[in-house]
């Protein structure tokens, strides 16, 4: 089969197409014929990871495709089933193995390209907002980096699953326009105004129940001001730096704030399996009914992977970059 | 009936004994003949609270006694039942009303003085360690201020309910000795050594799963260092200041730390009721079997309340100060 690996760790020029044997599924695994793969920042980082040694892996952590062999006890994942899900490397190949518990059945209403655009960003947003943020029906949520992959997924779910009141921040009018279209109610261009003041005004000083914080350091004080009593503040990125000068713990106590740091990638296989299963059950019906939509920036052919990495590294995309692997 | 109130907000000299009508229980409430009352810091703060207006309340938030009238639908709380629990003021009187859901039935094995020493500190420690800290069987917990009321309660429960490995810090050898006697395994005199280094050594760099933090600011860096991956760090006091310079959010994310600020007193009636009910069911059997013991510093007669407030304000006590109200 064809696949994309690397000659050695490095820039985009190290990406190389290889011809290898199909992988063989172990007990509990599926063999999936890959139709489409999502391109993720973690792939570009793996490509450059000088700690890797030969044999270098097939890149890619997110695919959609068709089950061709089922070595698990879950008979509903029979050969021919359309699935998507996270894999531990191997996504940029024509076939990949996937633990059965990671497989999310893909409704007929979605194309394979759309399926490959779901797992990474929607699972991350779901985990952050529900497992960690414990977002409840009609609560108020502040979503930073509203134009990002996880941001656009979070806005849609907060709107469709929870009828939340959504405050979204971004630095470009077109990203805020997109956020509004996806369900955000209050839009703040952080280059033009203080989100803390806006939230205080709109909520009459009460604040928000959940914050999805990709920014960290530079937003610390305004995030703290924006928290309601019993707020859950989930820290999933430090785009604004990871150091904070002067933290007031008195406010953290008085408001009974819960601050949770998280990263999805290093979590255990078991955690990802449970997350995938719950997501399949709770969220996938919304995709079937077209209430949720994967946001796709572009679909590129298999041969043009290096160009896909360039787009990712130049931050050109406002949704997922998808590689078509086979028809 | 006799009770202690105040002439006006102020120092200990404003405490005054008054003669008033017995309170009348509303629907859902019990009338309790008070046998003993716990003295709490919140009482001394209420005494000084210049925001209070007349009529000034009867002080006291924690009692034990006997039910004399039951206006609730819970027939097991019939007249004659021995109970203890939290009340909204009124604890320093011969009779007090208590919502039925706050009542914790007192086993015959415990005296009324012991019963009055349970609610505030054990409920706070239970809520902090289990509801917020989610302490699980055989995990590792770091308990600061090991000699405090909440500290001594937490050590006993972590040991008896969870077989936890307990790291305790205090500044006096006799407090550490008491902590050891109550079940702590690793004792650190913070005046003599770094608890972070000690924990790193004992746990081989892994750290602890839960921190009960009464200290805040001055311990921030060492607490962060002491956290294991997925640690729950519960902030319930800022004895060491509430300002932190330089916080590293990268570590909070990488270790997936959950930081929760909390205060029990401002929580809702419903929250306290649920907490009391779960506590009665899960924890009280351990008191009956003498596996848990209230730590009492002194029992003083009703007439000597001002002296009890003096002890509290001079931080003389190493356990609860209890006022005997009637025989």
From TrEMBL, chains A, B:
Keyword Methyltransferase annotated: no
- Pfam families per the record? ADH_N, ADH_zinc_N
Keywords of the record, alphabetical order, are: NADP, Oxidoreductase
The family database entries (SUPFAM superfamilies) matched by this protein are listed as: GroES-like, NAD(P)-binding Rossmann-fold domains
Give the top-rank taxon of the lineage listed in the UniProt record for this protein. Bacteria
Q: Which PANTHER family match?
A: QUINONE OXIDOREDUCTASE PIG3, QUINONE OXIDOREDUCTASE PIG3-RELATED
Q: What is this protein called?
A: Putative NAD(P)H quinone oxidoreductase, PIG3 family
Name the species this protein comes from: Alkalibacterium subtropicum
